[in-house]
Design goal:
By secondary structure, the chain is an alpha+beta fold. Among the domains are: about 260 residues, no CATH class; about 90 residues, Nucleic acid-binding proteins (OB fold (Dihydrolipoamide Acetyltransferase, E2P), Beta Barrel), CATH 2.40.50.140. Helices cover about 40% and strands about 20% of the residues. It has twelve helices and 19 strands. A five-stranded mixed beta sheet has the order 1-8-7-4-3. A hairpin with a 2-residue loop joins β3 and β4. α6 packs across α7 and α9 packs antiparallel against α10. The chain is globular, with a radius of gyration of 24 Å.
């Protein structure tokens, strides 16, 4: 079987396990997409922004360009435009195309293969903001002062023409040299200046920034084992998207619309107590008793750790303490970002909640009076939010399992290999150990020379007879004992 064939088999198996639709959209949905593309009058009722030198900045392998950005500094105020693909103008609520997108809820990005939420005719073509091509967009236009505060904003349906498609490295190279007279370079320089202000303001307001490499980076055999520093161009785009998403939530709330917030709760005391155990075992002193303050201190302390494996383990445990963000019509704030209200607006091609937010914004732009709250609509949104949150989680787990399979299979030719690992977690059955930079396996208690007892938070294990202790974050020498051919799961043995 070819490597590609095996990888496709893995995608099919994991898609089946996690309930991910691997097939094409049904024929009625495809027909609706084609009719919407053919029938539309792109310019009707839209503001013409085709002369604005907007650019898309994405990864090198991106095909669905959701958003384009432009910035111009006027005195002490930044005029930021985030133009987002107007997928809602093609995907009609309640249609077969919409039903299929809702069922999928998210695009799934396996390394080397994408399962799109919308048909390729839309996701990679008509809704994708490709350079030099006219596209419909919904723009968030913001005036942001020198302190990073949005002093004014508005949403407008528009027609755009992206001036350039930049990759993150290309944008980084442009930022490294003095801007010339080129409009794109001038905009990029202002975007960079604004992004630094926005990032500093978020950190002052209580957000924390934690560098985590993309999951698929583990499959890059040529990559350095350390956690890579994110390019500033990536942070720049992130800050622009965060600003637009925050405006979307505020706009819809003030207009009385019912919609899906993106929420992230404060860390709970029980999870914080476990994190304290982990940090103490790794020799980090984070004395905050308040769970929220603790994770902020921990993020700062972890960012200074040079040991790549230990840093990875501690980041993993910090994220477990934080819990998952989710979608709900009830505003609970977003702890991780430090925002009182937040919604997903900037990726309607690949996330269904963003598509619903677009519809709500377009409805609000047309409404003459504040709508009455509807208990039925609230219940529908709660159900939709739970569905989208679940599909997002399943997509992430499927991709992580896929990567684990690929990594594990690389070890089949290295049985007996010895490595210095770091304990990353514990269960009743044994310890999980990160080793070799990106691999993870299990060291089973049953294969060890004692009976090990876990502490309350499952962060430490001690042998009853020997008193030998292990802790999450502790270095441990291991040896690859076996690899499951089907799943890539790795079983380890102590190598001392």
């Amino acid at each position: 079987m070819s490597a590609q064939g095996g990888q496709n088999d893995d995608v099919a198996e994991l898609a089946d396990e996690y309930g991910i639709d691997i097939g094409p959209p049904p024929s009625p949905a495809i027909a609706e997409a084609q009719r919407a593309i053919a029938a539309a009058d792109d310019a009707k009722g839209r503001v013409d922004l085709r002369q604005l030198p907007l650019v898309t900045i994405d990864g090198a392998d991106a095909k669905d360009f959701d958003d384009a950005v432009h910035c111009r500094r006027e005195g002490g105020v930044f005029q930021l435009t985030v133009a987002v693909a107007d997928a809602a103008s093609y995907v009609v609520a309640g249609s077969a195309l919409d039903d299929d997108a809702r069922a999928r809820a998210t695009s799934v990005y396996f390394p080397g293969r994408v399962l799109p939420m919308l048909p390729p005719e839309l996701s990679e073509d008509r809704c994708s903001l490709r350079p030099k091509e006219e596209r419909r967009a919904l723009a968030c236009e913001m005036a942001i002062d020198g302190a990073g505060k949005v002093v004014k904003f508005r949403f407008r349906e528009c027609l755009i023409r992206s001036a350039a498609r930049l990759t993150y490295p290309e944008a980084e190279e442009m930022l490294a040299r003095p801007p010339g007279k080129d409009a794109v370079e001038a905009s990029l320089a202002d975007l960079a200046a604004l992004a630094r202000i926005l990032l500093e303001r978020r950190e002052r307001d209580g957000a924390f920034v934690l560098a985590t490499p993309p999951a698929e980076a583990a499959l890059d055999e040529d990559a350095a084992p350390a956690v890579p520093e994110r390019l500033f161009a990536e942070k720049l785009i992130e800050e622009c998207m965060l600003a637009a998403n925050r405006c979307a939530a505020g706009f819809l709330r003030t207009r009385g619309q019912q919609f899906l917030y993106r929420v992230h709760g404060r860390p709970q005391e029980e999870k914080a107590a476990r994190l304290r155990d982990v940090l103490a075992g790794a020799g980090l002193k984070c004395g905050a008793r308040d769970p929220a303050r603790l994770v902020i201190e921990a993020a700062a302390a972890i960012s200074g750790i040079e040991d790549a494996q230990l840093r990875r383990v501690l980041v993993q445990n910090l994220l477990q303490a934080l819990g998952r963000a989710s979608y709900t019509p009830d505003n609970e704030g977003h702890f991780g970002l430090g925002f009182d209200e937040y919604a997903h607006f900037t990726s309607p091609i690949r996330r269904y909640p963003d598509l619903t937010v677009h519809r709500a914004i377009k409805e609000a732009l047309r409404q003459e009076r504040r709508p009455a709250a509807s208990a039925k609509r609230l219940a529908e949104l709660r159900e939709l939010g739970a569905h989208c949150s679940m599909k997002e989680m399943h997509a992430e787990r499927a991709v992580l399992d896929y990567i684990a399979r690929q990594l594990g299979r690389r070890l089949r030719s290295q049985l007996g290999m010895r490595a210095e690992g770091v304990v990353s977690g514990m269960s009743k059955g044994g310890m999980f150990v990160v080793f070799g930079g990106q691999h993870e396996g299990m060291l089973r208690f049953a294969d060890m020379d004692d009976y090990y007892v876990l502490n309350q938070h499952r962060t430490r294990a001690r042998g009853r007879r020997s008193g030998r202790a292990f802790a999450v974050g502790m270095p441990v020498p291991v040896q690859v004992a076996a690899v499951d051919e089907a799943t890539g799961r790795c079983r380890l043995a102590l190598a001392d």
